[in-house]
Amino acid sequence: MRAVTITTRRLPARLGGLLGALAISAGAMLSAAPAHADETTPTSSEAPRVDLVLDVSGSMRATDIQGKSRMAVAQQSLNEVIDALPAETEFGIRTLGATYPGNDKTEGCKDTKQLYPIGKTNKVEAKTAVATLRPTGWTPIGLALRGAAQDLGTGTTTRRVVLITDGEDSCAPPDPCEVARELAAQGTHLVVDTLGLSHDDKTRQQLLCIANATGGTYTDVRTQEQLTGKVKQLVGRAGDTYKVTPAKATGTDKCATAPLLTPGVYSDREKFSEHRVYRVPVKPGQELRASVSVSLDRAVARDYGVLLQATDASGQELVRGTDAGSGRTDVASTGVRWSAPSAGSASASASSSPSSSGSGSSADRAVCLVVSNSFAAQPGVQAEPGLPLELTVDVAAASPAPDGPAAGLGRGWVLLLVLTGAGLLTGLVFGWIARWRIAVWREN
Question: Does the keyword Membrane apply (predicted)?
Fold first, then answer.
């Protein structure tokens, strides 16, 4: 009996060792599949830079946002944004209308200053500076935008200005729209995103004009949560996109006349329920990778979607990607990947034949990227201009993964066979143990 007990206790350990060996063998078989190194993208030595321009004019005293003053809402949102700042982002704050309390418009319209300098942020100091603000004077938006451009300095990467205001410029000249166009024309890679706390048409038109001139976005803010979320998103976007300045591209409604794009990042505007088409040359053995993000810079109806399709020159779909939204997100994004057939294959020969690609030039053989949306503006919201979109295009050597499903299934069958064998062996061992223990019990 003693010998039986000792042997029975050792069996689970031996069984565990056996099953462990089987698991190692399965892992070794699966690891025989080719491994791919992580793809890396070049980074910039410059940090992302954001300057927040805050309206502190007298009208910010109005208490029409969830029962709180516009100023209190802006201050609370800024505190939350500062707490959530990415470590690598250089952040600063500029005010307008914060210091001059008098009635002299000439003096009041000079009232813009840097509240917190752009750089690595001491969160306590930045929040303390925000807490001292009290609604005071005039609204020199144009002058403040020029000051923000100086705050951000020059460089090779995109800088962002986030303007929060509750009214139009009360000090022009300079007209803020003209200032935005002037800054864009200087090639300073400056993007101005505008957020409006009031909802009159004149303010909306002016803020839209500023954003459009620099490739930025406009948002009509209704709640503190919306303001906080949008500013956080814009600060985060500075960290995501500052390394590459999007080039402007204008999509068309037909593939034959669409602009030809090389790998890079592109910006455009798409109207509600519109299709915009672009072309990308893809050679046999190459893989097309593309993604699109559409910013919802105004209130849109629920139940919308964004569709990105890759088609051939005849309009036959190759692959598609979709993103559906509920009306509560700020960006709708989707992407596609498609590998061109290898040279010499039947599909490659067909795609390069004169009947399918016209003259056979690289442009004629280009894959067509079609960006579509099902957006609709909410009542009272302007449909013009179109929503800003950002299109990222890359063409790389096709993945060395097997062309068809057979090889992938082969690796799957290996795993299945190993697991089946392990299961059978486990069942046999435990069955043998059970029979042995019953036999021993009967003998005793």
Answer: yes
| Closest-CA residue to 219 (of 364, 388, 352) | 388
List, for residues 144-192, the tens digit of each pLDDT value. 999 999 999 887 777 899 999 999 999 999 999 999 988 887 766 788 9
Banded pLDDT at 345 (limits 50, 70, 90): low
CATH number 1.10.1840.10 is the correct assignment for the domain at 49-241:
no
Q: What is the CATH number of domain 247-397?
A: 2.60.120.380
Give the whole-angstrom CA distance, residue 91 versus residue 79. Answer: 13
- If we measure between CA atoms, which residue out of 176, 6, 162, 167 comes closest to residue 81? 162
Closest CA to 128 of 82, 61, 197, 94: 82
The answer to whether residues 58 and 98 touch, using CB atoms and an 8 Å cutoff, is no
Q: Find out whether 144 and 114 touch, Cβ atoms under 8 Å.
A: no
Cα–Cα distances in angstroms (integers) from residue 356 to residues 12, 201, 231, 348, 367, in the given order: 66, 50, 48, 11, 12
